[in-house]
């Protein structure tokens, strides 16, 4: 890369106006890594949004798809499984959320240690294999155990896949990380569409006790969606070739490997890159002469577990404030969403019983309608996060506030149609909220520590996800109390979003 190209800007505003403003202030990030990351950003911007990045948009979306389908699955199969195995319903959600917690810790923290590739490929494969096996469960203990192991794979999807996508996308297209949530909405839609005929036609009546042969719908559902996930896992492993993240390699001091990846992607896209190892080394030497050099040390080159990645996310007051707020927001929303989403089909069915129109057909038809409603929310989120004066923080706060408002409003429903209408509003705005939340977190973490940062936030939401079913064990799910609690929590989390110290709009993630 020539000297003149080194002086060019490394990010673009939403209006395609160049900006040199950095996301992080002085002292927030290792200056050596930051200097090299800026050079890397220019190289990725030089390559542009090409065939490789668009293919990655698809295969990374499989993670959103999986993260949507499998947690929803515990709600979709809850009523027929209770009829067959006779257990306290929240225990199934508890098993799922324990697995999600283990997966969030294992894969997201691990991808900063052993790299992105192994985590990216194995999470989807693990989820699909044990998801299929769960369909053959002879009893509740086997079902809960297999769901928990499957969820270990699911728990790593979002933290790893968001980090992978952001590591390769140019700054001008970072907003696509928000639009990736459309895969989450499509996952909900497909899961609901498949569940509707299978459970409606191959299950015992609501509230009836029955045998396995009379209640095969939920098993067919697991076999079908597990098989689809296995196919998507094979596409990841054998059709698409994921290069190791160049930003991860730079963080390890493997400059030559990072440059080789950039040139390989440029060739795949049919273009060229002028990046050289000398460019990265020069950037590192220049930064090393700064006043903050003694405070920081470049990421360790050894593949060992340590607290170094976590410490980097709390190294300055603003970084510590940003990381702490993100963990808190994720935890609160994790509690609220699990308390509501995981039991939504059950809530729809139980409230439908009060309205004298309860049936599997009506319950799962309504679930399909809700899933369709969420799809445009993902697209709208991708537009609003790039609006001046709104950005990520404003969009997240507004969407969370409206999500909570529609939850409160749903308690006023006096008919199934009214309940469905309020829940459509909830589905629309909650998809905007999740789209922004899943995007803004990896954007605010430096790539060398991004897996760890995503792991901290994912762990927070999964810990509270474990708490939610425990609450449900002692709560009456046929009343509006869980809805009130969930609504208040979501609104509070939206208010906290306004206090995030960094706004990624128009700035390049490093």
Describe the structure.
This protein is an all-alpha fold. The protein has 22 helices and 2 strands. The longest helix is centred in the last third of the chain and has 29 residues, at 416-444. The chain is globular, with a radius of gyration of 23 Å. The relative contact order is 0.17. The protein has a single domain (51-239, 312-497), classed as Growth Hormone, Chain: A. Helix content is 70%, strand content 1%. Strands 1-2 form a two-stranded antiparallel ribbon. The chain has helices at residues 3-6, 31-47, 51-76, 78-85, 90-110, 116-134, 140-154, 157-168, 176-179, 182-201, 217-239, 246-251, 255-268, 277-288, 308-312, 317-341, 344-354, 360-384, 391-410, 416-444, 450-474, 481-497; strands at 11-12, 18-19. α3 (51-76) runs parallel beside α10 (182-201), α8 (157-168) packs antiparallel against α21 and α16 (317-341) packs antiparallel against α22 (481-497). β1 (11-12) and β2 form a beta hairpin. This is MFS general substrate transporter.
What's the structural blueprint in terms of helices and strands?
Layout: H1 3-6, E1 11-12, E2 18-19, H2 31-47, H3 51-76, H4 78-85, H5 90-110, H6 116-134, H7 140-154, H8 157-168, H9 176-179, H10 182-201, H11 217-239, H12 246-251, H13 255-268, H14 277-288, H15 308-312, H16 317-341, H17 344-354, H18 360-384, H19 391-410, H20 416-444, H21 450-474, H22 481-497
Helix pairs in contact: 2-14, 3-6, 3-8, 3-10, 3-11, 5-7, 5-21, 6-7, 6-8, 6-11, 8-20, 8-21, 10-11, 10-18, 16-21, 16-22, 17-18, 18-20, 19-20, 19-22, 20-21
């Amino acid at each position: 890369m020539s000297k003149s190209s080194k002086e060019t800007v490394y990010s673009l505003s939403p209006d395609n106006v160049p900006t040199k403003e950095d996301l992080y202030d002085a002292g927030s990030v290792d200056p050596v890594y930051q200097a090299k990351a800026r050079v890397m950003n220019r190289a990725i911007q030089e390559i542009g949004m090409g065939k490789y990045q668009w293919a990655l948009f698809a295969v990374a979306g499989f993670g959103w798809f999986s993260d949507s389908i499998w947690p929803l699955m515990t709600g979709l199969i809850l009523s027929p499984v209770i009829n067959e195995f006779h257990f306290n319903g929240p225990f199934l959600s508890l098993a799922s959320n324990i697995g999600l917690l283990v997966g969030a810790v294992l894969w997201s923290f691990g991808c900063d240690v052993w790299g992105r590739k192994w985590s990216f490929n194995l999470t989807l494969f693990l989820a699909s294999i044990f998801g299929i096996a769960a369909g053959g469960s002879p009893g509740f203990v086997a079902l809960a155990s297999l769901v928990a192991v499957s969820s270990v794979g699911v728990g790593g999807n979002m933290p790893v896949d968001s980090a992978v996508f952001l590591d390769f996308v140019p700054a001008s297209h970072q907003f696509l990380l928000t639009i990736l949530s459309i895969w989450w909405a499509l996952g909900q839609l497909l899961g609901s569409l498949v569940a509707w005929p299978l459970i409606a036609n191959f299950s015992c009546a609501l509230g009836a006790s029955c045998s396995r042969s009379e209640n095969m719908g939920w098993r067919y559902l697991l076999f079908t969606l597990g098989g689809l996930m296995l196919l998507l896992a094979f596409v990841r492993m054998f059709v698409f070739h994921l290069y190791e993240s160049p930003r991860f390699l730079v963080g390890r001091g493997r400059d030559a490997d990072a440059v080789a990846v950039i040139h390989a992607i440029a060739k795949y896209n049919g273009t060229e890159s002028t990046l050289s190892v000398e460019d990265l080394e020069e950037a590192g030497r220049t930064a090393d002469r700064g006043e903050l050099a003694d405070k920081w040390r470049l990421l360790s080159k050894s593949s060992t577990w340590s607290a170094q990645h976590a410490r980097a996310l709390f190294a300055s007051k603003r970084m510590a404030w940003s990381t702490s707020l993100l963990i808190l927001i994720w935890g609160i929303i994790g509690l609220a969403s699990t308390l509501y989403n995981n039991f939504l089909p059950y809530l729809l069915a139980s409230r439908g019983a009060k309205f004298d129109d309860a049936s599997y057909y009506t319950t799962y038809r309504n679930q399909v309608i809700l899933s369709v409603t969420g799809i445009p929310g993902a697209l709208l989120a991708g537009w609003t996060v790039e609006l001046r004066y709104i950005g990520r923080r404003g969009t997240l706060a507004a969407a969370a506030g409206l999500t909570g408002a529609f939850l409160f409003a749903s308690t006023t429903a006096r008919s199934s149609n009214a309940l469905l209408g309020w829940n459509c509003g909830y589905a629309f705005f909650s998809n905007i909220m999740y789209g922004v939340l899943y995007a803004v977190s990896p954007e605010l973490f430096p790539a060398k520590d991004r897996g760890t940062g995503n792991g901290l936030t994912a762990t927070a939401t999964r810990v509270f996800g474990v708490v939610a079913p425990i609450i449900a064990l002692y709560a009456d799910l046929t009343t509006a109390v869980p809805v009130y609690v969930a609504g208040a929590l979501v609104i509070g989390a939206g208010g906290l979003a306004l206090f995030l110290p960094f706004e990624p709009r128009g700035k390049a993630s490093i």
